[in-house]
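Exercise 7 asks you to align residues with tokens for two separate proteins.
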Amino acid sequence: MKKNILENKTILLGVTGSIAAYKAPLLVRELIKKGAKVHVLMTKSATEFTTPLIMANLSRNKVIVDMFDAESQTSGAWHIELAHNCDAMLIAPCTATTLGKLANSICDTPLVSVAIALPTEIPLLVSPAMDSTMWIHPATQRSLELVRQDGALIIPPVEGDLSSGFVGPGRFPDIEDIVTVLEETLKNSSETRYETNVTYSKNDNIINNDDSPLNHIFDNATEPIEESISKDKWNAELDYELLKKKSNL
């Protein structure tokens, strides 16, 4: 029987004020179904798209929105305690605002405070979601690169229909794909080295990893060639992120 890597794992889920936050309850439900213990942190903007009550009911844990909420003050440094007692933190969706705060250690929300307090051995996964023009803006890309350099695994957005009515990059990935990336990250972080056959050329940044499960996420899809190309690129970016995480182990 295949081992469920998420069983009894403590996952911190950060939810920010992207319109994609309305999908966050589905993400919580999927993690709970796989046996994870989920603690949700929300920015105040995120509460405009889904409610702490919904997230608390699904996660079966109190949701933290306010840094100084009296019920959250279970210890002198509750955010440190929370950060040091989890198996991974996932910020999904992540806005350009929170991405910028992560890049510059602006800890004015519980979500960012906990993310910055994570020990380096605990994986931080960030799934940005925003409109295309915001995603490709140089400021967003600078923040993205800084967060990446600091050790976070970036789950890149996909191309598709956006809430603005435009079509382009910035769309929140499918829930099952985000969960798969989290599972693979936990699996790899629990090993002293990766067992997959990976080759990397510094000259041309080519990644060749035929054995990676990420390459098979979309194997059974029947879709237009444009979407297939976009998803192949998405998988390649994820493999690259995982390879860089390996080099830091």
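Second protein for Exercise 7:
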Amino acid sequence: MDPEFWNQRWREGRIGFHQQQVTPLLAGHWDAAEVPSGARVFVPLAGKSLDLLWLAARGHRVLGVELSKLAVEQFFTEHDLSPTLTQTSSGTHYSAGAIDLLCGDVFNLDATFLADCAGVYDRAALIALPPELRARYADELYARLPKDCRGLLVTLEYPQQEKSGPPFSVSADEVRSRFDANWELTLLERREILDTVPDFVAAQVSTLHTSAWRMQRR
């Protein structure tokens, strides 16, 4: 998927994927992931998610990666944070308190940034990618996370023929096929949420489920 696709959506304000609240599955299931207190948590395709603040408030150091400079700048502005900026080979590094945001392509992320990430939280990354990029994402990026890294993966499932992504439908079978070789997976919850997502209702999608997966690197 062309990076300009996402940059244009941010410029035009077409960010229906951005939530005005903390993700319920994060609040409900993060403790089950058993990420150590104070651990650094990797959040790919972070946008300007309120989940970043929630994780920081739980005592974690947060490393988000986001392609859109506009999204990164809006995050810090909207929360009255004044980050320091550093140029790196992976993009511009914004840092304020417990939150670090790298503005750059997640596929170009230097492995050194992930070396001390004992946690991972993926709500909007895997489901944002078409199938061919999901394979690369799982094989390349998750492989850089250290042994015993643990966290939470949130997915969506719906009849893909009824609506084009993103976000894309990712089934339980696909989650297992992508990650089972290197990660212990536990399905914590699967719930129907169609009535809460107006865009899917308007598109006449027949069913929409979201799932929370506990992950632990073997």
